[in-house]
User: Fold this.
Amino acid sequence: MKFMGANELRESFISFFESKEHLRMESFPLVPKNDKSLLLINAGMAPLKPYFTGIQKPPKSRVTTCQKCIRTGDIENVGKTSRHGTFFEMLGNFSFGDYFKNEIIPWSWEYVTEVLKLPKDKLYVTIYLEDDEAYEIWTTKTDIDPSRIFRLGKDDNFWEVGTVGPCGPCTEIHYDRGENVAPVTNVEDFVAASDADRIVEFWNLVFIQFDKQEDGSYAPLKNKNIDTGMGLERLAVVVQDVDSIFDVDTICALRNLVCEIAGKEYGKTYQDDVSIRLITDHIRSATFMISDGIMPTNEGRGYVLRRLIRRAARHGRLLGIEGSFLAKLSAEVINGSKAGYPELEEKKEFIFKVLTNEENQFNKTIDQG
Ligand code: SER
Assistant:
């Protein structure tokens, strides 16, 4: 396995798919366009839905992106665990009626085993229960050991988000982080090892074949499509052989700055670590949201942003930080990410102003209280 920084990983994925004739596209903004089913973009495929359904014509039938994403469903766990976060980048490649299973399965194996050089005896694959075609391709077009392939049901290997939209069965690639452990040999042990976080899923390859309707039925799409998604931070945990997303090179630099401002050392007390991780995560989300034009308000996306900023400010106080500090951290987010997201640098003064205003307003309310 070869060490790669998060920025290097992003570029390696995108260039790999460029070499497979994909068009590299910039990340779409976090605010969805013409999509009432979503508050914030939460997956690489989300802004591409009209290309899957055929409502719009894509610039090319093969596209690759690294999409900024926010998921706040698990916000209460952020900080408390080493793996939850609200902001992440999703690496993805997409086929709009172009290639299908026969191509993506061997390509994904090539990327993982030949470019990233992940050891084959650490990898597992899951497929949808009835998907004999995927099994056939995995076992004839790659050199994976067939005993490392498991079949799972709709909850695990069928991808859909929200109530409507493009969806389909999927196959996932997993990494075994266990040290000096015997390989799992049956599906029950596989599920138990996944629940225990020993085995982690890191790449989801979705065979988009249906458009889920409001009545819950699955209308077949005219074309067969591919949508893959791999969380950059989660991949970096595997490739950098670290314990959590907060130890990944780029995020660790931000975490260290939180510690420096607070005069705290990471890894000393659970309570402080919770606050350090929470601030590290929330400032990333807040910085990107403001750069995409979201303002703190009392409803919808604006409320999500307000909550993120206030939670970060409150945890700053718990760490003993006095005065406003979020703009300083935001500058570090921008430094670490501006290469991939030039809009951050362009809007930095505005971002700092919005953060500091909201933080001061919050501090005033608390002090008066
Ligand atoms: N849509 C799938 C996901 O979000 C794959 O991109 O995991």
Remarks:
- Residues 259 and 265 are 6 Å apart (CA to CA).
- Residues 270-291 form the longest helix (22 residues).
- The radius of gyration is 21 Å.
- The first strand starts at residue 23 and ends at 24.
